[in-house]
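Input chain follows. Return structure tokens only.
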Amino acid sequence: MTDLPRLILSRDHVYHGTTLKELARRARAGNLHRVRQGVYVDGAAWTALKPWEQYRVRVSAAAETSSARTIFARHSAASVWGIPTIGVHHPVQAVTLKNDGGRSRAGISRHYADPASLTVHRREGLLVTGRVRTVLDLAAFTPFVESIAPLDHVLKADRKRGLPAISKETLLAGVDGIYTAAAIRRIQVAVDFADPLSGSAGESYSRALMHAAGFEAPVLQREFRDEAGRVGYSDFYWKGVRVAGEFDGIDKYLKPEFLKGRTAAQAVIDEKLREDRIRATGCGVVR
């Protein structure tokens, strides 16, 4: 997990030994990045963040400048829990306990939640909806193809964060009395399709797009072997046409935990040799 940059609050400018004009000048020069009104981070640190990490910083910035107790929900709660979502241009989202149709204020989109049905957690210093409520909200209120990655993620243990897997039964038990009949149907379809064998959010999104396009459902993490032993596992496998599919995320060629001491060039070569061995078994490979 990436350490997020420290927030610099304009209200604390005296503590930081600067002035409001100096903060604005540094932001114009690119030395600072203005996350939202009154909140800055180091410019270089911001640029180094992945888009979803930048979104997580926006959530923290919203918490720092909100005048009321804020319970983050949907994509914002997911970012705090470390649950992957699709897309990066989501608004900061929170719940409101007033049944007035929801509203947006101070750059935060608010959605009504019945207080009787709401369980609030404190995570990384922020108030958020629980993991079950978070992924159910995403399944209820986002397109099907975007709802699968969060569900796939929570179906398996998150060892990095010490969070247990959530069963499909537990997820479905969380819908009663909260959602409309139409939303419950959307949730049930998404939960039924979700699969803990998915290896990444990209794989989950790809599988959901395939399903929406009417393709045969692939087998996930299919093992391949040849006379030399195990070749490896494919992300997808279509039995009907004997084709293996690979989702080539950039991480496998850049992150140390995937490179395991190799250069990026060697990782590319190794991946090509692995593909050749899979093809030699009589199976096609697509990426």
